[in-house]
Write a structure and sequence with these properties.
mainly alpha; about 400 residues; 13 helices
Length: about 400
């Protein structure tokens, strides 16, 4: 791919107008999506719990989220005396901005059938239906995911209170722990697609459902990414940040008014964005058949339907699964997902090398299987040795304590 065809003839005022309009449309889609996502989650959870849910503000309660947002805007904005004022104000933006910036690299439509490159023609200009397509789009995704951690950490630290600080440390440890597994699962997709561009990744999956990366990577990276993304979003059953509220309120204890609302906004915005990323990386994005009518409409329709499946899944998990203990959460990330994703990445790499080198299929599978077994065995052995050493250390400590007593 050569990049967005909008820039093929250089940069002028028309191109600038296109970029600004696309950015505004993307921001509007995310904000409206958040409003409906909050309503959707409350209604679905209420239905699963045999309740009614919001039904007063607007038809079917659709205006309830808007009413809650207006209420937050007009509430008093409080700041602790011991807070770092600048960082305290900046932290909510560091949580919201990465969520929207990540959505800008997601293709939300386009024509990927019949050998098309996904471009659509608007007002005599061909362009892609995404705000931006940097050549390192996947690295941009990982960078924005990492920056979001700073918003939570700085919110707790700048509050000038030990309880928000403890909550932010727990949340940061959780997000950092699952960052490695999430990145390794993405590497498997990049390895098969041969590009860091999200548009190129979608184009590589067009044409057949068998080209989707969920099938091409044999499901494992998809499962690892979904679990790691759920933990990164602090969604149930990994909502240990929310569990802090049972004590004092977590990292945003000292926040009120619209600043608290921005953390709430960031949570749901990240849910929509991460669902869109899952659809883009593993389910072909907007790629799909166009049985009749304008093909450009079908691209956006397929993307929306796939997105709704994952949004419903996130809500379903919230209403179904109990919360993990913190030690279970950390063990799953460090001792299960990272070894699994790393071992499977070696298998996918071996298969890709064998395919490119023209190896026999049986020989490729044997080599890949051997590499996978050796890597899994090595990682499992390392974890077992570390556990035994930790047990011995605790035993020695207990013996020394008894002797001293």
């Amino acid at each position: 791919m050569t990049g967005d065809p909008l820039f093929a003839d250089g940069f002028d005022w028309v191109v600038l107008a296109f970029v600004v309009v696309k950015a505004l449309i993307g921001f509007t889609i995310v904000m409206v999506g958040v409003i409906f996502m909050i309503w959707f989650e409350r209604k679905v959870v209420a239905d699963m719990q045999n309740r009614i849910g919001p039904n007063r503000a607007g038809p079917w309660g659709l205006a309830q989220t808007l009413a809650d947002g207006i209420k937050l805007i007009f509430k008093e904005d409080l700041q602790p005396d011991k807070a770092d004022k600048l960082v305290f104000r900046l932290a909510p933006y560091l949580s919201v901005a990465p969520a929207f910036l990540t959505f800008t690299i997601v293709p939300i439509g386009g024509v990927f059938t019949g050998g098309n490159d996904g471009a659509v023609e608007l007002f005599g200009r061909r362009t892609w239906m995404q705000v931006a397509d940097p050549p390192v789009g996947v690295l941009f995704l990982l960078a924005m995911s990492s920056i979001a951690v700073y918003g939570i950490m700085l919110a707790g630290w700048s509050s000038g209170s030990k309880y928000p600080l403890l909550g932010s440390v727990r949340a940061t440890a959780q997000m950092v722990s699952y960052e490695a597994a999430l990145g390794l699962s993405v590497v498997a997709v990049v390895l098969l697609s041969g590009s860091l561009s999200t548009h190129d990744i979608v184009a590589a999956q067009a044409g057949s459902i068998l080209n989707w990366n969920i099938i091409a990577t044999a499901l494992i990276p998809f499962v690892v990414f979904c679990v790691a993304a759920t933990a990164e979003l602090n969604r149930p059953p990994f909502d240990l940040v929310e569990a802090e509220q049972e004590l004092v309120g977590g990292f945003h204890t000292e926040y009120s008014s619209i600043r608290f609302g921005m953390f709430y906004l960031a949570e749901f915005m990240n849910t929509i964005t991460m669902s869109a990323i899952i659809v883009t990386l593993f389910l072909g994005g907007p790629a799909g058949p166009a049985p009749f009518g304008p093909a450009v409409v079908w691209g956006t329709l397929w993307f929306t339907l796939k997105l709704l499946v994952f949004l419903f899944t996130f809500v379903w998990l919230r209403a179904t699964l109990p919360r993990f203990r913190y030690d279970q959460l950390m063990d799953l990330g460090w001792k299960r997902l990272i070894p699994l994703s790393l071992g499977w990445l070696l298998v996918v790499g071996a298969i890709s090398i064998g395919r490119d080198a023209g190896w026999d299929r049986l020989a490729t599978l044997v080599v890949a299987g051997a590499i996978g077994l050796v890597s899994f065995a090595a990682l499992a052995g390392a974890i077992r040795v570390a556990r035994l050493r930790r047990t011995d250390a605790f035993g020695e400590l207990a013996t020394a304590t008894e002797a001293a007593g």
